[in-house]
Amino acid sequence: MLLSIGPCHKLCSLLVFALIATVAVARADPLPSWNDAATKRAIIDFVTTVTRHGGPAFVPDDERIAVFDMDGTLIPERPIPAAVIPLGADLKHAVEKKPILADKPAIRAFLKGDAAAFRNSGEQGLNDLIAAVTDGRTTEEFSASILPPLEATTHDKFRVPYTRAVYEPMAELLSYLKANGFKNWICSGSPILFTRAVSMEMLGIPPQRVMGTTAGMQFDERDGKTVLVFDGTIDHLNDQEGKPPTINLALGARPIFVGGNVGGRGDIAMMRWSKDRAGPSFQLLINHDDAEREFEYSEPDNYSLEAARRYRFHVVSIRDDWKTVVAP
After folding, report:
1. What distance in Å separates the CA atoms of residue 194 and residue 42, rounded to the nearest whole number?
2. 48 part of a folded domain
C-alpha cells in the first residue's frame, strides 16, 4: 500500500531540507587551500566580526577596503618579477639606441642574465628597466605588449603560463573578502600600467583599483591623434614609505585589511599605517619559507619578520599554512 504524505509531513521535510542546506553553507570552507591553522582562523574570525551587523566591531561596506601588494604577495616574484617577462627584446633594442642605459646596475645585470644582481637592485632596478623600454612609446603601445608574452611564457618553477602563476590561497582570500563586501585593491611597486594590464586577468581586480609606480609621460600628438608618451623617467617609485601616500591619494582612507610579503621591506609602512587606523584592522605578511614548493628568502636582517613581531601582524608560513601554492 502506498503511503500518502500529508501537508504536515511535506512541511517538515522542507524544513529539514532547508536546515541541512543552511548548515552545509555555514560549514563550507571559504579558504580550502589553507591549512586549518591559527592564521586561517584569524582571517575568518576577523571577517566574521567586522561584517556582523550590530556587533561592536562592525565595519560598514564602504569602509571595508583591502589593499594588497602584488609581487611576492599575490603572485610569485622569483625567479624574476612577472613585469620583466615582456621586456627582454625591447631592452636590447633600447640599449642599442642609447648605450648609456647599460651603465645602470639593473640593466647591466639583466643583460648579463645575472638574476641575483638584478633582484638586489630592488624596485628601483625594475623600474629603471621599465623606464628604458617604454621611453618614446605611447601608453597604449606599452599596455598592448604585456599580456601576450605572459601568456606564452611558462613559469620555471610552477610550469604554468605566467598569467596563471597566482598563489591559490591568496586568490581564495580575494574571493572571500569580495563575497563579504570588501573592495580589493592592489598597491604594487611594479609600474602601474603593467599591473593594470594583468590585474583583472590574473586576480579579478579591476584596473581602476590598482596603484603602482608611475612613469613620466608627456601629452603629444601622432598621426593627428592625441597620445601620452613615456619620457624615460620614473615619476613616483611606489615602495616602502611611498605606499601610504599613494593609498591616501587614491582612497582618502586607511585600509582595514592589508597584505604584503617579506623580502624587500616594501610593505611594512603600509601595514603599520593600516594598523594605526581608528577601528579594527588586519595585517597579513607572507613569509617565503618553503624552498621545496616555492622559494625561501627574506631580508638579511629579517626586517619584515621583526616588524611583524613588534607590531603584531599575522604571518603566513607558505610551508605550514598553505596546502597548495600555485594550482597546476
Report:
1. 33
2. yes
CATH number of the domain within which 227 lies:
3.40.50.1000
Overall average pLDDT of the 135-142 stretch: 92
Length of the chain, please?
Answer: 328
CA-nearest of 307, 261, 313 to 282 is: 313
**Whole-model pTM?**
0.87
Percentage, residues of the chain above pLDDT 70: 91
Contact 264, 123 (CB under 8 A): yes
Query: Over the stretch 92-135, which tens digit does the pLDDT of each residue have?
Result: 888 888 898 899 999 999 888 888 898 888 888 888 888 888 88
How many domains does the chain fold into?
1
Q: What is the pLDDT of residue 6?
A: 54
